[in-house]
Design goal:
This protein is mainly beta. The protein has a domain at 68-145 and 165-178: CAP Gly-rich-like domain (SH3 type barrels, Roll), CATH 2.30.30.190. The protein contains no helices and ten strands. It has strands at residues 40-44, 47-51, 73-76, 80-89, 96-102, 112-113, 116-117, 126-130, 134-135, 169-170. Strands 3, 4, 5, 8, 9 and 10 form a six-stranded antiparallel β-sheet that branches. A hairpin with a 2-residue loop joins strand 6 and strand 7 (116-117). It starts with 39 loop residues before the first strand and ends in an 8-residue tail after the last strand. Residues 1-58, 143-178 are annotated as: Disordered. This is CAP-Gly domain-containing protein. It comes from Homalodisca liturata. Residues 22-33 have a biased composition (Pro residues).
Length: 178
């Protein structure tokens, strides 16, 4: 036998994952956007609620998203009423999404996106929303910080129970995926 060891298949450590000494470590979660003069953060019953224009999709309207279930009556962005028909992951974007059947045909789809069916509804009555963009009651203009800087406590309720985690569910109970 020769004195040369056989390769083990284990690669030597790489310096790629090592942080540079001249740069401070970055957090794993990106920092939240900086506040503008139109925005305001307030703490109410231990929950932080951001109050901006509810049409701004980056604004968190509800923090306790685990309490939403299929069949719940909600308002998308605090303005458009409907019923949750799907909650779970999607192929079009990461994270948990709610598929909502709107009362009026002001939505974007019929429950399918990119030929993948998540729930069934009439054309233009379906919309997908981040769970943080749903509210249990409609938002009034007084619930949002006004341009003058006057603020009112948000009327967004904070439910207390937490259901089990979600894999993707539909109103009918059948996870239809085409």
């Amino acid at each position: 036998m020769s004195g040369i060891p056989k390769p083990s298949g284990i690669k030597p450590p790489s310096k790629i994952g090592r942080p540079c000494a001249s740069q401070p470590p970055r957090p794993a979660v990106p920092p939240s956007p900086t506040r503008t003069s139109a925005g305001d953060d307030s703490t109410h019953d231990g929950h932080t609620t951001r109050r901006h224009n509810p049409l701004d999709s980056s604004v968190v309207l509800t923090e306790d998203t685990d309490s939403f279930i299929i069949g719940d009556r909600v308002w998308v962005g605090g303005k458009r009423p409907g019923t949750i028909a799907y909650i779970g992951v999607t192929q079009f974007a990461p994270g948990d999404w709610a598929g909502v059947v709107l009362d009026q045909p002001v939505g974007k789809n019929d429950g399918s996106v990119a030929n993948i069916r998540y729930f069934q509804c009439e054309q233009k009555k379906g919309i997908f929303s981040r769970l943080t963009r749903l509210t249990r009651t409609p938002l009034l203009e007084d619930d949002v910080t006004s341009e003058t800087g006057n603020s009112h406590h948000s009327s967004i309720p904070q439910p207390s129970h937490t259901p089990p985690s979600r894999q993707g569910s539909t109103l009918s109970g059948r996870g239809l995926k085409v």
